[in-house]
Amino acid sequence: MKLSKYITRLAGILLLGACTKTDVPVENQLTPATFPTTDEQFILAAGPAYVGFRGSYCLAYWQSQTLSTDEAILPSRAGGWYDGGRYQQMHYHSWTPDNPIVGDTWTWGFSTISTCNQVLALFASSKDSPARTRAAAEIRTLRALLFYFMMDAYGNIPVPTTFGDTAKPVQKTRSEVFNFIESEVKSVLPLLGAATDATQYGRPNAYTAYALLARLYLNAEVYTGKPRYKDVVTYCDSVIRSGKYSLATDYAKMFYPDNGPQMTEFILAIPYDHASAQGEQFNWYSLHPALQKKYGLSYRLSNPVSTIPSYYAQFSDSADVRTTLWLTGKQYDFSGNPIVINTTKVGLDNTYTGSDAGTPVDYQLTFTPDVTLRDVDKFEVGGDELGKAKGIRNIKYYPDVTATDRNQSNDVPVFRYADILLMKAEAILRGATPTDNTTALSIVNQLRTARKATPLATLDLDAMLKERALELNWENTRRIDLIRFGKFEGSWGYKTDADPNKRIFPIPSGERVLNPGLIQNPGY
Amino acid sequence: MKKWLFIWIVLAANQGLYAQDSGKKATVRFRHANLRQAFAQLEKTYGLYFSYNENNLALYGKEIDFQLKDVTASQVLDKIFANSPLNWSFKGNLVVLTADPNYQKKPGSSHAVAETPADTITDTLYKAGADLGEVVVVGYGRQSRKLLTSAISTVQSSEFNKGNFNSPAQLLQGKVAGLTIARSGDPNGAPSIILRGPSTLRPGPAQEPFYVIDEVPGADIRLVSPDDISAIEVLKDASATAIYGTRASNGVIMITTKKARQAQTLVSVNNYASVEKVARKIRMMTAGQLKAYLARNSLALDPSDDQGANTDWQQAVTQTALSHNQHVSLSGGSNNLTYNASVNYFDSKGILRNTGLNRLIGRAGVEQRVLNNHLKLGISVSTAATNSYLLPDQPIILYNMLRYLPTVPVYKADGTYTENLQRVQYYNPVSLQNNAWQNLKNKTTLLNGTARLILPLGFKYDVNLTSQVGQDNSGTYYTSQYALKTGTNGQAYRSSYESSKKMIETFLTFARRRGDHDVNVLGGYSWQEDVTGDGFQASNQDFPTDALGYTNIGLGSPAGNYRNDWGVNQYQKLRLISFYTRAKYSYKDRYLLQLSLRRDASSAFGVNNRWATFPAASFAWRAIDESFLKYQSLFSDLKARISYGVTGNSLGFDPLISKVQYSSVGAFYYNGNFVNAIGPSQNANPDLKWEKTAMFNTGVELALLKGRIKAGIEYYNKLTSNLIWYYPVSTIRYFVSTYTANVGSISNKGFELTVDATPVKGASFQWATFLSLAHNDNKLVSLSNNIFKLDSIFEASPGGQGQTGSYVQIIKSGKPVGQFFTFSYAGKNAAGVSQFYDATGKITLAPRNFVDYHYAGNAQPKVQLSWGNNLAWKGFDCNIFVRAFLGARVMNATLADLNRPDEVTNYNLPVFSANESSRDISAYIYSNRYVENASYWRLDNITLGYTFSSFFKGMRSLRLYVAGNNLAIITRYRGIDPEVSLSGLTPPAGLTPGVDNKDYYPRTRAFLVGLDLDF
Predict the structure, then answer these.
(1) Which of A130, A350, B301, B339 would disulfide-bridge B305, Cβ 3.0–4.6 Å?
(2) Cα separations (Å) of B391 from B165, B187, B354, B398, B476?
(3) How far is it, in rounded angstroms, from Cα B162 to Cα B174?
(4) What is the number of alpha carbons within 13 Å of residue B135 lying toward its C-beta?
(5) How far is A313 from chain B (nearest CA, A)?
(6) Which of B422, B603, B662 is the closest to A31 by Cβ?
(7) DSSP assigned state of A508
(8) Do B733 and A375 touch (CB under 8 A)?
(9) What is the per-residue pLDDT for A33?
(10) Is the reported ipTM for this assembly greater than 0.85?
(11) The model's pTM
(12) Quick check: B428 contacting A, CB < 8 Å?
């Protein structure tokens, strides 16, 4: 038909002139075509792994490792912090696969592992250079450390090592994961640097690898059933004999907001900054709002976390500098004036039933060791002033006056020289051959002397565990220490659960929805 | 309506030169014929052809019913067009029809052309629904309503809601069956709009309809002032919207502005002023009630909280808001040139002090016809300057105006604000309100050039070029006293972002009628490129004084390692390319068929799935024209329609969504400094593709008793598949825990009923009434695809104190969006403590998240009703409009979080809590106790007006009116207003309608006085 010809022709003219290009060049984002290509870019490209690592180390991970022990408790206070019972479950060992702390810890670990894999995949496709080799070895060490944390927390875990693998993840046994970590760390060891200064700070060096191996072997019996105490001594000695680390002259200053590469004990630390590198919020969790003025803080303190009386009872040596890093008893400001809260009789104690309930009371803030629950079901210590002041507070990571919000600048050690000494001492105490003319007791007393504590006359396992508590509180070691010493099934606070299945956390239910092939840990 | 007379080019009559009548004589006989039927007969009889703009045919309202013997074609045509708004002329054997610009209804003439010019229709009777004579705007063209094959609702300017509105969308609230519009009292709040149920899981733009303003697709709605609008069309079914392909899944709203007409200069002035007050408050305890409660429970306030005041904090932060609107327009034309211009200034104060909005809109347009009317050129420019006055932490102010203790005064004796920063999220709301401000200025300009060329053989070619440029400048300042920013000594943010939109639309139309066959074919191409977020933000702090606000940002001297907050990168560029075609065919104007096809590409999608095809087909049968209905008098119209089509949705996300993106993911320590780590911030999905909505629609339109009753019913069945969603993925395999993928499908089925009736139509008194009813059944069909399998996911976490990680809704296959899934309240125990049912039905005091949730109704209404009435008596007109929302539920998280009787010494309680025990430490827990029936009947509007006839020569009319908005509401809902956002929580994680979460900007009751003057 003539008509259709016309239409076709006109349409042709129309369409020929028509642009059909839908590729819009990417102008404002980096894409694989433009990044990374230079040595400096490799370092930046490795950065996300460290950002991820920093993320939950002091939050969900700290909560899983600490609130599950006698080291700390996070009860509901004044109606806040119940949050579906997540902290209550940590205390009672009644956590479920739905507990967000269990889930967040998993997500933190595996997303950081995934980021490590992605960084390594980027590196694999780029030009070889010494900088690339070093950066890749550091990332592999970091990844091994995260596999260690995940294996320690969840037992049988998948071990994904290539990025973009679409196969469903398969779980390995705890022993297999143990062996993988051991061989992985040993294989990257020769590629790692030995610098301990600012150029290396915050990223793994060879001593990080030694420390990780020492930690792995110290707990080998827990993970595989086979003790490896001799290897603990070997790798601790690799750190000690290097002479690159020494005990700090001032324990308290080691944890100040301005700590950093100059700290002689930090083997691997996570550098935090209140503005740039956030995620360390210990004081916001631990300190009472009435202390805000004393420490010159510009943000409101939240107050839920305290320790448990039986744990605090270990800090009995008043000469020990580590005892001073707790807030207890009546509180004063720096001029010695009492910190006073104006309230009423019933505001102070809401169980008060006298007819003069409304009579004003000036209450001096007093931290008491007990964390007696006023309402056991809701894990509530009470919203009155006495309730809010319950529990001894940790102030090891000294408040950061420069912070404008709850995030602080104190760097947090992952591996510390004191821990190396304690691990070596414990390994010897548990039967390893002493080296370098030391004994378990001499090493512990070396540490105690540095901390101005009275030296011990004898050392047994209980004293060993106690020493670790004195030294390493708020450093994510208590849970595995209690497990290794067989005390994780003990009773503290309101917790009486003695189920050994709780030595590993459940695979989070969210993860099992996404990967139905994952087998749940026994007892959940 | 009549205005369309002048818009379309018609082949002009050059009568002297070409006038020709063959002189052939014949006998003609018409029986209740319409124009087309008459033309068909004349074509046969005299060998003539007709050329006309089909819109003009609609102006001809009569039936042709006569018989003439031995007459020429001229005589027949004269007879047909006598006393009509149409002129005819010969051009060879072609009969050209034009509309008569000077036509005025002559006495005794019966057809339905408005007496006054169309620009200023003063006839305020309802004509919504199927006014079959009218012409409606469809995509890329116009069409007589009676020949439509798809579901399109028209709302004329005379039917618009009257009120203090910041968006034209509100003009439609309740006027279109199936279109749900909700808005709080926030002068800066955009209304949330959903057509025919939620058909996406993403909130925000992804669920809003697509706007076309004067044929410019995607134009900024702020550019048009309500007084400039002559009509709004809502394209509802897929056959109507598919021509807009990828952006049309949620319906298309087409706004048509008033246009100028030749030889008549029109000036109109529209002004109003309004007073607004808070319509409803949450009844919080007064100081007396609080103290009585405390005394009853042997409690007492801390001395610092007991200062003998009785502050009504809701009163303290709110005000009576005065707003006004001025609009002047001018239009006219001569010698084939028409022009129009208008200026609108709108100033709306918020009832929350220090909030408000003002906007200045200017529009101008010129159209010129050249080449003997074969070419029309048009150019128009619209510009809008909007100033928004915002409160940076408005949700916290709205929360604290409720719970701040009434026993303390706003100011202490020394003039400073009462403050107690020891409590969680507890801030003096008046201090927050006065110590931080944000001013957002937007300037948007749209330039549009059009050309339309009439080609031989029934072809017509259109080109439409558009450029829209927007500039957003924002300044925010927090004073040194701002309680949420202590220690910063004043903090300022400034930002400047530009956005632009470039569009080319070009299409060719062919229209031809031969005998009973009428064909109309359209083919077109469009290209569009949008750039948004082209700009930056800067910040500074530690200012020597608060006096200058953010105006001199360089004045701050921040301490230490302060980092400038550059904000997130917002730059986005998106390209959309489309080819489209549509064919209409009608036989005897009785059997109507329409097919359309659009092929769209969007650069947002993965390379594998950029292009997609969106087809639609529809059929209508005008039964009324069948011979067997000729001789009945019950029906004056009867038509049935059926349609099916597929549309897409690509709105609401980052154009680079399908690619791996590297961006700064945070800083890490490197050799003494914290440097930005560059890492992947998004998983790549090169297979990401269009969300697709397939919709079946069928409808019947009928008119009874000579049009005194008109009714329409629509049924639709809509299935959206390939839902784009932020799917949770395992971080074992992906580095980000969400993955943007096409998963699952969602279904909406429903019906809409509209009835228009004129029960009384006397000489001086008229009553017209309009009723619409809509019902929608929404269901999530699946959340899985061939790779991802998921049955359900928890949504909507209001995040109140002590309830972090507690969810109140579930998205689950087989359940509707907005399904409440929360704890089940089991009353109080003997000690007055709230109890709950656990998963097994046993009573527990400490319910566990996820495990112990129970279903608790859903947020979507079962029925939406609107009822409008228009009464006219002599010069008076009165409009009464009622809306109802039935069967919806709302999670009143506001009440839950306020109900903390055990914390009564720290936070005020609602009167609701008076009988709660102060020992109830679980009263606040989100449960079905707070899932409330949110059904309501609202007396939305009463307008009373009087129209004066001309006072002096040149003046055409003057109308004065008073109007009241939101005058009364009947509801059992305990919150501020049951009409909460349909979209969800902010920031939205997903689609979570029906959660009232402590940040509801109180709805207002408004009274307006207005004046419309026409010259």
Answers:
(1) B301
(2) 20, 12, 7, 11, 9
(3) 12
(4) 23
(5) 30
(6) B662
(7) P
(8) no
(9) 62
(10) yes
(11) 0.82
(12) no
